[in-house]
Amino acid sequence: MTIPTASPTAPIRTVGAAVPGTEGPAIRITGPMHERFGEILTPAAVAFLTELHHRFGGRRHDRLADRMRRRFEIGNGHDPRFRDDTRHIREDADWRVAGAGPGLEDRRVEITGPTDPKMTINALNSGAKVWLADQEDATSPTWRNVIGGQLSLRDAIRGRLTHTSEDGKEYRVTAERTPTIVMRPRGWHLAEKHLEFTDRTGRRMDASGSLVDFGLYFFHNAQALIEAGRGPYFYIAKLESSEEAKLWNDVFTFSEEYFGIPRGTIRATVLIETLPAAFEMEEILFELREHCAGLNAGRWDYIFSIIKNYRGRGARFVLPDRSEVTMTVPFMRAYTELLVQTCHKRGAFAIGGMSAFIPNRRDPEVTARAIEKVAADKKREAGDGFDGTWVAHPDLIPTAQAEFDAVLGDRPNQLDRQRDDVQVRAEELLDVHIGRPITASGVRDNVSVAIRYIEAWLRGLGAVAIDNLMEDAATAEISRSQVWQWIHQGQSTQDGVLITAEYVEGLISEVLAEIPRTEGDRFEDAAAVFREVALQPEFPAFLTLPAYSRFLVETA
Q1: Which pLDDT does position 20 carry in this prediction?
Q2: Which of 14, 204, 311, 498 shows the greatest Cβ crowding within 10 Å of its Cβ?
Q3: What is the pLDDT of residue 556?
Q4: Residues classed as catalytic
Q5: Whether 435 contacts 429, CB under 8 Å
Q6: Three-class secondary structure assignment of 248-309
Q7: pTM for this prediction
Q8: Residue 229's CB: how many other CB atoms inside 10 A?
Q9: Which of 382, 339, 377 is nearest to 356 (CA)?
Q10: DSSP 211
Q11: Are 454 and 529 spatial neighbours (Cβ–Cβ below 8 Å)?
């Protein structure tokens, strides 16, 4: 069976009959149907989403419960360790992952960004080898963004995406060779409240953002991508265990079988961006080995994960100003070197992360500093053995590529570099001592950046340039979680000021007073969200969860 590319009419394998007297299993569209949404939310596409939720929704909830238990254990003094029950996987030298699919053989520079039409076209014209089409941290999950991003991708894959901005500027794809698209669905923890799933017993619940993003993209585009000589490729975010990786692998296998696509056609690159996942890299690769292309060092979420898991464990685990937590501090070096070694041992690509520095075409000094910082970051990654890296701005592609070209030359990767010299112990991954202070400006910067980012996120923007740095949900999470931890661990600034909720409230007032205001801005709402996620006694696992429920849900 081939995947329909227009208005699907192919037969669908339906789930078993519902319990008598119930409505399930079914998915109901509860959000409004805006222009062209019907092209994505076709009956056949919704039927496929229903199948995914019916088969995998329960296991998703089980894995989320596992996360909560593990977080509770770490918070109560049980540090993560390399697992004894999976030692046989790590000690078996014979297995390898599937590796690169067509179009993923050379990944030396990947550009990241949201999937609105303008950013999609810019990414496809950028000259990068790969585009991370981000439906996750770089996208505010408004209903229009979720389905609009699917429309952008569907049109782009078929060569018919154009865009005209409000000022009349026209955008179209002009590159002879466009980057290979690797789409990033939302993480397992995120819901899609504009779709309601009813299970076999009649119980109703929000749909899974992960299954919605993956399912719609795969349904509409897998066959077209295969016919174009590439394939349905995905970046998998926020994994915390190999059991979560196995769930994704089963989703992939079922989806391939559902449409008669050869097993192993899907390729996934997993972001190692949580502390628990850093202790299960080989196990994650093993569970996804039929579909896995590599791992990525998701640096910002990784820092956030450490703060989140150790926020209540005392001053020993308190990090200094966000700007001081660089990739060269010992625990980050241990994490990235272990990732490269693990990947190359199993035939997987190791992809580096994103430096937050971005150029400013109106300020040569800012641009020069950004290029200097990014060049140093990419030189370190290439020298450590990474096979590619991320950038967030097209102007940084030549800088990143030059550093990887200097190491790779004509080779597409450096999988042959095994890094047998690396020996990382669990204690090294947990040694977060940096020896730098918390400064008053560092606290203020966190408050300012978080509020400004949240305000943009509430208006539908997921990737935002703030103070010449690219901020997304992950960097905002670091900012607000540091403030929460500093308060609850009784920390003081370098000049002796105790960091309290009252002190931070004063900074909130200062920030709101200094920011230029416009009609219809969302700064008051953003400040309210910040207070909820940074100043309250309870620590929300993700700032996006309460903010999404309160502010982004549309009703039909």
Answers
A1: 52
A2: 311
A3: 78
A4: 184, 472
A5: no
A6: HHHHHHHHHHHCCCCCCCCEEEEEECCHHHHCCHHHHHHHCCCCEEEEEECHHHHHHHHHHH
A7: 0.95
A8: 9
A9: 377
A10: H
A11: yes
